[in-house]
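Pipeline run #58 for the internal structure catalog. This entry was flagged by the ingest filter as a single-chain record with no existing model, so it goes straight to prediction. Upstream metadata was stripped on purpose; only the residue string is passed forward. Reviewer on rotation: M.T. Logging verbosity set to normal.
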Amino acid sequence: MHFAFTDQQLEFRDAVRQVLAKECTPGDVRAAYDAPMARSPRWATLASLGVVGLAVPDAHGGLGLGLVDLVPLVEEAGRVVLPEPLVETAGLAAPLLADLEDATTDARVGPWLDALAAGHLTVAVAEPGHPGLPIAGAVGADLLLLVVDDGLDGPELHGVDAATVAVTPVPSLDPTRRLGIPAWTPSPETLLASGEQATGYLSATSDRAAVVVGAELLGLADAMIALASSYAKDRQQFGKPIGSFQAVKHLLAGAQVLLEFARPAVYGAAWALDAGSYDTSVAASVAKAYATEAAVEAARVALQVHGAIGYTWECDLHLQLKRTWAVAEAWGSATDHRARLLDALLADR
């Protein structure tokens, strides 16, 4: 099988890259550290381009596209350490709500999709199976998609207006992720799905999350390798650029190799989820494991090449480092997904 992005997908990616290069500079990300709850004009710009509502059906003002279309855009967001909840809202909530609308007659879902596509609604999605875990994007979100699972009747998926609950902020290495823990009580009025239906939605969301977060990690890894390579060309030691030393070359080349192996895994998993392939969960776990390891290694190498200055406020690298370390564990670490793959292989025997 030959896989390649279409010209339209690449043009969309390039357009988003140009916009983010202008509107999401390292200075803008630093400013978001000081005001992590503020919704910047970037969000409206991304909504007007169709990025935020990419997975929203066109009947609700979205583009009705899939993960293959979204992944290159999230990769660009990772490259600039976008401080808005694009992964949570566009990558997770939008397709989940679209699935809900197809299978239910809940009158709330349509207006939510309308508002999301227009850029008027940000959504935080809880990781199933981790009660009490801080939720990325919960602080400042408009809608919370939360999970209850008592282990008896299966999980329940609830949609909660964030204005009606108290969300306790949780410190994060990267404050722009807006971690929070909501204090809320499940009710019939907030219930969206339960039992096997909820299990299916949550399983699909977990697979999407592995792929979308993997795409963000690809962008982060690429940016860190580029920063380290540029620094190695300029930094002089013993009268020569440190990039001329074989040890430094090998470090950077090793990180680049891991990235090049991870990228097709993420792209292939996005295709598998869009196509409804039988092995979507396996593909998603491969993608997250490879992308996490590539980004963590790129972070290690970039910091080693920069030395101690790489983690100082003045150096742009610390922005990518903090985001990488913060999201590496999100929606399953590399170890978690490798264990999941092992379980799947043993189950097939």
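catalog note: The first helix runs from residue 7 to 23.
catalog note: The chain has a mean pLDDT of 92.
status: ready for reviewer M.T.
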